[in-house]
Specification:
This is Hsp33-like chaperonin. This protein is an alpha+beta fold. The protein folds into two domains: 233 residues, Hsp33 domain, CATH 3.55.30; 53 residues, HSP33 redox switch-like (CBS domain Like, Alpha-Beta Complex). The protein is built from eleven helices and 15 strands.
């Protein structure tokens, strides 16, 4: 752990412009903790691999940044997954974060509807209505936890706020940004995000106000002293985070330390050891075989192609598996006998 030096031009960790890294921080006078994430080559690899339209690439980049922010809080080796299912032009998004540092992502979309929405269509319009599920998987059915948020025309930032309001009851603020920038001789995608939570020693200070009870008749006012007021420290922290501009989260010349210094230098901010992150898929021949073994004999016959082979392509990394049906059946029979 180190305190960011008083000069914004210096960096306590020498990570000026560091990509593919998660930087935890704490602002102790305001009782807030959080993380900043910068994704460079990892998210560019994911988005370039599938040749997504620009609007879909931005949406998936946001989802990847949010998933890394949330998944990097895991204190064990497990998996955090963000998945959407909705009626918008992008009807499915899946992002996996495997602790401590592996991320993969994919999106399914209707190309015609995406084109109709336009190249600058926002996340909310592309997602439409449906739900967003966030799943923590520690490796067994007994250790799975899932929170679900209704998608009702909001983007990932507001969906994250809603998730923490209803599932964790922790005051939280999230900022996300994605951009395609000129780097070297070409263009490259970058994504960034900041997550901040109010974690005072006294739980009463973190109480959340109930949802607004509705409109009063004209000419009436409400004075309800029982409704908790937001803590002054949290109000200040939120106000500071609200000043973040998108370019500050993706600009390679603005390090995470520089951004945190700009936001919190008057209060003092401490940063902890940064954690690297990289794009990596979990697929393998063994996993593909595990999936096929769950099929019935009739289903296995149905997936044999016209060329007499079983061809399976990973939706995440596009790796193609070409399998001989006879070898597949022999492996399944052998394992059954064992």
């Amino acid at each position: 752990m180190s305190e960011i030096p008083s000069s914004p031009g210096s960096s306590s960790q020498g990570s000026e412009g560091r990509d593919d890294a998660i930087l935890p921080f704490a602002v102790e006078p305001l009782d807030v903790r959080g993380r900043v994430v910068r994704l460079g080559p990892s998210v560019d690899t994911i988005l370039r691999r599938h040749g997504y339209p620009d609007s879909v690439a931005r949406l998936l980049g946001e989802a990847a940044a949010l998933t890394v922010l949330l998944g990097s809080s895991l204190k064990f080796e497990g998996r955090f997954q963000l998945q959407t299912k909705s009626d918008g032009p992008v009807d499915m998004v899946v992002v996996d974060f495997e602790a401590p540092d592996r991320v993969r992502a994919t999106a399914r979309f209707d190309a015609e509807r995406v084109a109709e929405a336009g190249p600058r269509a926002g996340t909310a319009r592309l997602l439409g209505h449906g739900h967003l599920a966030m799943t923590i998987d520690q490796g067994s059915a007994q250790s799975r936890y899932q929170g679900v948020v209704a998608l009702e025309g909001q983007g990932f930032e507001e969906a994250a706020h809603q998730y923490f309001r209803q599932s964790e009851q922790i005051p939280t603020r999230v900022r996300l940004a994605v951009a395609e920038q000129v780097e070297g001789s070409g263009q490259a995608w970058r994504a960034g995000g900041l997550l901040m939570q109010f974690l005072p020693h006294s739980p009463d200070r973190a109480r959340l106000a109930d949802l607004p009870p509705g409109d009063l008749p004209e000419g009436h006012t409400r004075l309800d002293e029982s409704q908790p007021q937001e803590d002054d420290a949290w109000v200040e922290a939120k106000s500071l985070v609200a000043t973040i501009e998108d370019h500050e989260l993706v600009d390679p010349t603005v390090s995470s330390e520089r951004l945190l210094y700009r936001l919190f230098h008057e209060r003092g901010v401490r940063v902890f050891e940064a954690q690297g992150v990289h794009e990596a898929c979990r697929c393998s021949r063994e996993r593909v075989m595990g999936m096929i073994r769950r099929f019935s004999e009739e289903e296995r016959r149905d997936i044999v192609g016209d060329d007499g082979r079983i061809g399976i392509t990973c939706e995440f990394c596009s790796r193609h598996y070409d399998l001989d049906p006879a070898e597949v059946e022999a492996e399944i029979a052998g394992q059954s006998d064992a």
